[in-house]
Amino acid sequence: MSSHSRSRMALIATRTAIIIVLAVGVLVGLCFWGALPEKAGASNSDSASRELFPAEFHRVEMPQAKGPHVLLISVDTLRADHMSLYGYRRPTTPRIDQFAKSSRVFDRAYATAPFTPPSVVSMLTGRYPYNHRVRMFWQRVTAENITVADHLRRAGYQTAAVVSNVVLSDDACGLGIRFEHYDDQVSEPEPRRPHMRERRAAGTTDAAIAWLTGTRDANKPSFLWVHYNDPHGPYTPPDDAPVDFTHDQPKLIAEDRLLEYVKEPGLLDGLEYVDRYDEEIAYVDREIGRLLDAYTSIGLADDALIILTADHGEQMMEGERFFFCHGYNVHESVIHVPLLVRYKSMPVERVAQPVSIVDIVPTILEVAGLPIPGELDGYSLARGIHDRPPYAEGPDAEVKGRLIRTFVYADRKIVVQHGRSNIPRRSWAYDLRSDPHESNPLPVDPAESAYIAMEQIIRGDPDPAGQPTTYAKGIRPTGAAVADHADHDALRTLRSLGYVE
Ligand SMILES: [Zn+2]
């Protein structure tokens, strides 16, 4: 070993010793004061948030906001066209329909990805996945990504989240520190798989109301994000679900079209699965109604900004490979989501132009009178609608390690598929007016501006196939990507949700 190497090793050993001493000191201090944070529902201190972000975040002057209160409701796996709000043949969403009567309703809102982590991080940061770069399960949000909760907290808001999907637990995504109160408790046994844990819509609403009526500081404006996990599969509406849908003729499907987690033993009538999915929607609709009632009776609703959306949709029986799942393509069934925005100065109307869930953060910031950072990909929905095609991306079910990306226009969408090489391999388009079910792919002209813009995004993307280089080892089968440090329990959880085989 050279003397240079020896002195470097000595330096590393000294540094390591200092870090260990400091870490032990901090732990002893925390234990002494009884301040070790709990995993769920923990309160996070301001000093923790000071160290979390790039220095520029704290250098930018942040005005103090006087309000309004902000309530952001997101529903997992809720496809827009199965809601009566959007013309579905069944009365699945009577409470949301009622809420829509005083809201700005976006008929064409798009998620940024067909599965939870990338899409939710877009919803909370106002950035597309190629910018926030959370593209896998168990991949944590990095310090460069400032969430709307961080902005609002600096502006004097009290911030809280109640999330009921385990892939949004603080362990899985690292969002807990971004909120003063982060309740990710998922502890109810699933009805047919008692070894699995969940928190149904009723428990989610209860936890949100408990924060609103108990912990909330009445002297501050509040930001509450509530993420419901129903109607995520397996589709098991509770016994007291508000509706019981039935159908006449069965529609038999091949067993190999069903992923293990969603499969009911011996049940091959696809319409039975659709009935149960719709019943779960009606159930979560009732619970959202209960939350809105509580919000109103506490006296917050009149002056509040209330937003309702979903992180992605769900394929029913239109998938090429699997039925009743999401995360394998960018079909309308998985990226077209509901979006309703209610605020006193906002018009009550239906909006036909396509918008994205990255528009939620700038909308909240504008309504709160706060500056909108330049690096956001979204545009405020509080004013006129910005004319640009929403972007979405997802793993390609056909070929592992490939990504498909889309721009959605009023009447057309273009799709580009590629791998790690930054070079588009295939592209096609759909005419959404004449072919709403996307069954007839059309050629794309490489000279058209949408294609050129997409090519630039792909070429500028450090992780073109959507799997960050540092986590590349963690890529698992079935199209879903899992960060390398996900442990045995995490993989078991992901299997139960159908993301890993
Ligand atoms: Zn989801």
Question: How does the SSE layout of this entry go?
Answer:
Elements: H1 3-32, E1 42-43, H2 46-52, H3 55-59, E2 70-75, H4 94-100, E3 104-110, H5 116-125, H6 129-132, H7 148-154, E4 158-163, H8 170-173, E5 181-183, E6 188-189, E7 197-198, H9 201-215, E8 222-228, H10 270-298, E9 305-310, H11 332-335, E10 336-342, E11 349-351, E12 355-356, H12 360-367, E13 391-395, E14 403-408, E15 412-418, E16 424-431, H13 449-459, H14 488-496
Parallel strand pairs: 2-8, 2-9, 3-11, 3-12, 4-5, 4-8
Antiparallel strand pairs: 1-5, 3-10, 6-7, 9-10, 13-14, 14-15, 15-16
Helix pairs in contact: 4-10, 9-10
The structure holds zinc ion (ZN).
Zinc ion (ZN) binds next to loops.
What does the model show?
Strands 1, 2, 3, 4, 5, 8, 9, 10, 11 and 12 form a 10-stranded mixed β-sheet that branches. Strands 13-14-15-16 form a 4-stranded antiparallel β-sheet, covered by helices on one side. A two-stranded antiparallel ribbon has the order 6-7. The radius of gyration is 23 Å and the shape is globular. The chain has 2 domains: 46-387, Alkaline Phosphatase, subunit A (3-Layer(aba) Sandwich), CATH 3.40.720.10; 403-496, no CATH class. The chain has 14 helices and 16 strands. Helices cover 30% and strands 16% of the residues. Strand 14 and strand 15 (412-418) form a beta hairpin. The site of zinc ion (ZN) has 6 residues, from loops.
Annotation field: number of helices:
14
Q: Could you tell me how far the N terminus lies from the C terminus, measured between alpha carbons in angstroms?
A: 47 Å
Average pLDDT metric: 87
Tell me which CATH architecture of the largest domain applies here. Answer: 3-Layer(aba) Sandwich
Helical fraction equals 25-40%
What binds here, in terms of ligands, is: zinc ion
CATH classification class of the largest domain: Alpha Beta
SS class: alpha/beta
Number of strands: 16
* Element pattern in H and E: HEHHEHEHHHEHEEEHEHEHEEEHEEEEHH
Beta-strand percent range: 15-25%
What's the CATH topology name of the largest domain? Alkaline Phosphatase, subunit A
Uncertain ranges = 1-7, 9-14, 16-42, 473-479
Shape: globular
Compute the CA-based radius of gyration: 23 Å
- Count of domain modules: 2
CATH superfamily of the largest domain: Alkaline Phosphatase, subunit A
| Biggest beta sheet summary | 10 strands, mixed
